[in-house]
Design brief:
Layout lengths: L17 E2 L25 E4 L18 H4 L6 H4 L3 E5 L5 H11 L4 E3 L12 E6 H11 L2 E6 L3 E6 L2 H17 L6 H7 L2 E6 L5 H12 L17 E7 H10 L3 E6 L4 E6 L5 E7 L15 E7 L2 E9 H25 L21 E10 H12 L2 E4 L13 E9 L1 H12 L1 E6 L2 E6 L6
Parallel strand pairs: 2-15, 4-7, 16-19
Antiparallel strand pairs: 1-12, 3-5, 6-7, 8-9, 10-11, 12-14, 13-14, 15-17, 18-19
Length: 442
């Protein structure tokens, strides 16, 4: 499909500036059956005996971690990944790394459905940034990552992260320049929201919830053969970015249907031509000779040197991949040059990964929540926190609880406790936060 590229820019050119169009007549493809869902990381089976727990029932409330102490407020995500680290990933499962690192370095993450959570990472890194350690380790496993608008970490197959970043830039520019949908809809697509879903949620339920949260109408997603998703929680995420990562692993894009006023799924067309505009700075060190199927054109706009790169989505993804790799290299070098050797963070290595996510087996009979939480934290590294709002339903750490665990991972533990205290829960890494049912909707 040939299209004329309009170079009239409506705002200052930034690395995200781009043009892109879609074929509105495409239909979703059919896909393979669900990939394997997340399984618990079996490192040890803990036999819990709670006879001695009652002795700790009078422990002061101050000894329990608060939501703030259990998980620090996330700051600029890109800065977190510039942290100088000493990290040993040899033989560590991907999901083990993510669960622990998300707590230590304060980030949310999303795994593409094509990624096996039990992928074994390898490599021992010292005096490198977290971004460099992750990039090299994932590359050896045939995976890649990108930071999504400083909101969360996306991990996908080898070229998927570059493709995701490319689509973020192309689609957002199309939306902000009024090429995608009416301004009212465009503003909602470009908004940032807090959004979450529970384990194994149906696509219909997820898009219904997303529609309510973003005040958008979705249609046709119940007919698209998505797998069920693992639970996830995101803060301050762009609606457009969320739609892209939800569909990318299924070859599903989205379009605006003017007749119904709804956002609908469409087949992701990697042969579609587009133009990605980069600032011609130190980060853009892409060799055009390596990309003969793309056209490169240097220009100046408002005193800024820019590079127009035109080609198919498939070929532009390769350019984006080279650009992203170079950007990580330069930013990592700048970050390390600004830090001293004493700034190296080796907290990931202070605790053996084999102790990270032990399974829990045992019975709890009339033990206080405080005692149960204390035991789980010390023996299985699961931190449980009662939100302040739990007081509204008269649940405190002195509340008694009886429940059973049978080789339970963190989600099963959280679910069992939540059922007994009639609450909802949210998992952030290895931290479980309990809130009254429906609290977020108030």
């Amino acid at each position: 499909m040939t299209r004329i590229i309009n170079r009239t820019l409506k705002r200052r050119v930034e690395p995200s500036t781009s043009r892109y169009s879609f074929n509105a007549d495409t239909k979703p493809d059919r896909f393979t059956k669900p990939a394997s869902m997340r399984r618990a990381v079996l490192c040890a089976i803990l036999l819990i005996t709670f006879g001695a727990l009652s002795a700790r029932e009078n422990r002061a409330d101050a000894a329990r971690p608060t939501r703030q102490s259990a998980r620090k407020t996330a700051s600029n995500l890109s800065n977190q990944f510039k942290t100088s680290v000493s990290i040993d990933l040899e033989g560590v499962e991907l999901i083990q790394f993510l669960e622990k690192a998300s707590i230590l370095y304060q980030f949310e993450f999303f795994l593409d459905r094509r990624v096996n959570p039990q992928t074994i990472l390898s490599g021992s890194y010292s005096l490198v940034t977290l971004a460099t350690a992750l990039e090299r380790s994932l590359d050896q496993a045939g995976l890649s990552f990108c930071l999504v608008d400083d909101a969360f970490l996306y991990i996908g197959p080898s070229d998927a992260a570059a493709e995701a970043q490319l689509m973020f830039h192309l689609r957002r520019q199309e939306i902000t320049e009024g090429q995608f949908a009416p301004q009212k809809v465009a503003n909602r697509l470009d908004a940032k929201i807090d959004f979450k879903w529970d384990d194994y949620a149906e696509s219909r339920d997820i898009f219904n919830a997303l529609g309510k949260k973003a005040n958008l109408k979705f249609a046709g997603y119940e007919k698209t053969p998505f797998d069920r998703w693992r639970g996830a929680s995101f803060h301050d995420v762009n609606v457009t970015d969320m739609l892209i990562v939800l569909g990318l692993g299924y070859n599903v894009d989205f379009k605006y249907d003017a007749k119904s006023g709804a956002i609908k799924p469409a087949t992701f067309n990697r042969t579609q031509k587009a133009t990605r505009i980069y600032q011609d700075d130190q980060y853009f060190d892409v060799n055009p000779k390596k990309h003969p199927l793309c056209a490169f054109e240097r220009d100046v706009y408002n005193g800024l040197d820019v590079v127009y790169v035109t080609g198919s989505i498939r070929n532009l993804t390769l350019v984006e991949k080279e650009y992203a790799k170079r950007r990580i290299e330069i930013q990592s070098k700048e970050a390390l040059d600004a830090q001293s050797a004493t700034d190296v963070d080796d907290s990931f290595n202070k605790e053996q990964p084999s102790k990270l996510t032990a399974l829990v087996t045992g019975n709890v009979e009339n033990a206080t929540l405080a005692s149960l939480f204390d035991y789980l934290e010390k023996q299985s590294h699961i931190t449980c926190v009662l939100d302040e709002s739990m007081k509204e339903i008269n649940v405190t750490e002195k509340t008694l609880i009886s429940c059973q665990f049978n080789k339970s991972d963190i989600r099963k533990v959280a679910s069992a406790i939540a059922k007994e205290i009639d609450a909802d829960y949210e998992i952030k890494g290895l931290v479980v936060i309990f809130r009254p049912k429906g609290y977020r909707k108030r």
